[in-house]
Amino acid sequence: MELLIAVNPDKDSKLPFLLLVPLSGGLVFRTSGTWPRTKALYCHPVSVEDWPDDPEIVEQVALRSCVRRGAAIDLVLDRGRENRSQLVFTVARGRDMVFWQSPRTRKQARPNVRTPTARAAGVSDLQIIVDSREQYPYRFTGQQVTTVTRALPCGDYGLELDGRLVASVERKSLSDLVSSLAGATLRYAVGDLAALPRAAVVVEDRYSALFKLDRVRPAVIADGLAELQVRWPNVPLVFCETRQLSEEWTYRFLGAAYTWAQAERATIARIAPHIGTTDLDQAPTAPEPSTAEVRAWARANSLAVPDRGKLRPEIWDAWRAAHR
């Protein structure tokens, strides 16, 4: 099992090398370098037939390990230095994109910090709704959090209070941010978030990474983000460098939103009762739980339910009464 890098025979291509990964019958990528030494390398996936019959080999290194883990392929080369790297798969502008990165390039964007374990806003058990369409959701390990999976009307992580969706956070990787902004889907997503009492967009990268993009004009992306903030100033867009810090920021934001929502109505009732309604009254109805979630709750409360199929209306009524 070997990792092969050859010269790209297509002289018109801006990516001068071909990378052959021995996985699933062979994966071939066009790339701009032979190793991600100073920055992650963009890799364009092509058909295995694009590998030449008589390649001009530049690098030929034995592999100790080549394993797919989720949306990434981990490579361990059989050599002493520069032996670990990772191919990270994502989708941007409707097509596959792959970035080849090493521990060194990852470390450049990884701050040397340890996230705190103190409860967000002092909330002992925060329940966070995770959108059912999230492929690799945050797990909030090490925090006082319970998660439930439901289809959110907007955002990826939501907060429910008194049957209403009062806060939500939309998570974006850098590539997803760029593709959704270029395709105009981010505009609609932020517009939906703006209808909530509290909402935000968190990006798992640095703002400076926008100006290192080579497949799209950085100024176009920067202008698009600025336009979103001007149009919807109540939905902040926060860059948090890494996935770990983005998860921590999401937890802290939803914890603060929970404390605010609990105190909002009581405060208005004391100091300005003539206002009548608050932002919470305009919040949309929270999504209904899944049948599996209600079935598990019913069994925990000694209510007889079938192993599969629909639940009786009185079971749903009991769940709503208990969570009202």
From TrEMBL:
Matching SUPFAM superfamilies: Restriction endonuclease-like (SSF52980)
Entries under Gene3D superfamilies matching the protein: 3.40.50.10130, E3-binding domain
Transmembrane segment boundaries: none
Domain named ERCC4: residues: 127-207
Keyword DNA-binding (UniProt): yes
Keyword field contains DNA-binding: yes
Name used for this protein in its record: ERCC4 domain-containing protein
The organism of origin for this protein: Nocardia lasii
